[in-house]
Amino acid sequence: MAAEFHFLVVPLIAQGHIIPMVEVARLLAARGARATVVTTPVNAARNGAAVEAARRDGLAVDLAEVAFPGPEFGVPEGLENMDQLADADPGMYLPLQRAIWAMAPPLERLVRALPRRPDCLVADYCNPWTAPVCDRLGIARGVMHCPSAYFLLATHNLSKHGVYGLAAGDGELEPFVVPDFPVRAVVDTATFRRFFQWPGLEEEERDAVEAERTADGFVINTFRDIEGAFVDGYAAALGRRAWAIGPTCAAAAGGGTDADARASRGTRADVDAGRILSWLDARPPASVLYISFGSISHLAAKQVIELARGIEASGRPFVWAIKEAAAGAVREWLDGEGYEERVKDRGVLVRGWAPLVSILSHPATGGFLPHCGWNATLEAISHGVPALTWPTILDQFSSERLLVDVLGVGVRSGVTAPPMYLPAVAEGALGPAAGVEKAVAELMDGGADGAARRARARELAATARAAVEEGGSSHADLTDMIRHVAEVARTKRQEREVRPT
To answer: Does pLDDT of 262 surpass 70?
Structure first.
């Protein structure tokens, strides 16, 4: 591809979306294009290291800032990322969404000020407000999906067949079968819900559906060995091209060893990484359970405490990135219970962030207890580590089903509902600490089922690496995506020459 071909990459202002989309920018630049990641000042500061690392690797990746109009909608100055909502007024969610939609004018001003019109804009599904900008300026537009294709196809089919309408109100926990789906899946509205399928976001939902309908294709962070049927099903359902170009974390890992780039993929830490790695070096292979719940998911204090007791009772060595320990009831319990002192010989508690990639890639790590965010799920798959699933919101329940029911590399913890929306149900869903102890034993034990699960995880890790290498399915899909976008962009340029904007 000619070096002058230019992509704008516009992620949702949420770290779980920014990380893979920065990695997509890196992948595009590695193919000879130029890629500019567009985000707000706070997010540019948080993710600048990844872009700088790409540039040091000789890749044409840039970072462009657009002003965030949050204060115009009552959003406090500096609140520019979804993961900041956990520490903000709960009433900030809707104003933050309104402010995100109002980013269209500054984005358009940025594009018009460029010396040359970009050839393609790759927008997060959660940024449908970019579609009118592309239409006015005559720019090709792709939609980037950050959750699994399983989730995309399931929620699309549920909407298409009107199943959600049958489960409204008190029926959120009523089970129903996903229609026209490659595998049998019995779900409920509480755990299978589209991103904008909430009261007050009806306009955003309509915009997202329309932006998908008119897109020039979909980019999905997955690979065909695990989700080929779901990718193809989604493309057919919407009548659009869909490219599985991931896992982007595996591609990024293969693209260099820069510490800043690794930090951008979830390895920033509130603890010395060397100390964690030395501790892991002293543990037997595949003996340690790593526990981390990502940037947005937060457990109720009761769940954290039951989890802590269950992990202690399991007798297994562990590393736990426990961000809930920073304040409130969990901190009080930890400080007053003497928990860290009791487990210090076989457990490490990080009160904040731990170096995820370094831990998952260590031979001593034999299990991962994640929130089942899609990035964490792909990290587990890419590193060949079986998962003890603990979903909390949205597409995370789809990731659990894919890991456990489809791929056979996961064990359920027993969580059945999102704690932030159904606290009364969720707090009792897990059961006592004994349930955690049993689930940990099932994941980590060396019986026949456990051995088969670990073997399957290793196989999937190999296929993930192969997918992003030259000759692999994701490498081929990215090649096809670039070729298709180049053709669309050529047509758009010709149309602009006839009707300049």
So the answer is: no
